[in-house]
């Protein structure tokens, strides 16, 4: 959910996609760090409009909550693979 509403109420698969992609990224990021990488760029095709931008925002929020520094612009996230100090 973003701002108290569902991403796309007509497609419940959207929320499942967000959950799965977020979990996959949170799982993979420590492996990228161990390989010596310090940044990862994730891009969602923003040509599809606002719903995809909202998906990107939700994924960004979840990565931040997991302790990663995320720099984002419309439909794209650059993730610093150094975890923020909490």
Q: Major beta sheet, specifics? A: 3 strands, antiparallel
Q: Characterize the overall form.
A: globular
User: Roughly how many Å is the radius of gyration?
Assistant: 13 Å
Structure classification: alpha+beta
Neighbour order of strands in the largest sheet: 1-3-2
Number of extended strands: 3
CATH architectural label: 2-Layer Sandwich
For the terminal residues, how far apart are their CA atoms?
24 Å
| Number of domain modules | 1
By CATH, the topology is Ribosomal Protein S8, Chain: A, domain 1
Low-confidence stretches: none
Beta percentage is 15-25%
Task: Estimate the helix proportion, in percent.
Answer: 40-55%
Q: Return the average pLDDT rounded to an integer.
A: 77
User: Would you list the SSEs in sequence order as H and E?
Assistant: HEHEE
What is the highest CATH level, the class?
Alpha Beta
Written description of the protein model:
- The chain is α+β, with helices and mostly antiparallel strands and 86 residues long.
- It has a single domain, classed as Ribosomal Protein S8, Chain: A, domain 1, CATH 3.30.1370.
- It has a three-stranded antiparallel beta sheet with strand order 1-3-2.
- A hairpin with a 2-residue loop joins strand 2 and strand 3.
- Helix 1 packs across helix 2.
- The two termini are 24 Å apart.
């Amino acid at each position: 959910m973003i701002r108290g509403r569902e991403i796309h109420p007509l497609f419940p698969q959207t929320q499942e996609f967000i959950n799965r992609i977020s979990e996959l990224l949170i799982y993979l990021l420590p492996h990228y760090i161990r390989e010596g990488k310090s940044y990862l760029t994730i891009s969602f095709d923003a040509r599809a409009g606002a719903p995809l931008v909202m998906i990107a925002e939700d994924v960004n929020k979840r990565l931040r909550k997991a302790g990663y520094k995320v720099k984002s612009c419309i439909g794209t996230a650059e993730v610093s693979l150094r975890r923020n100090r909490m």
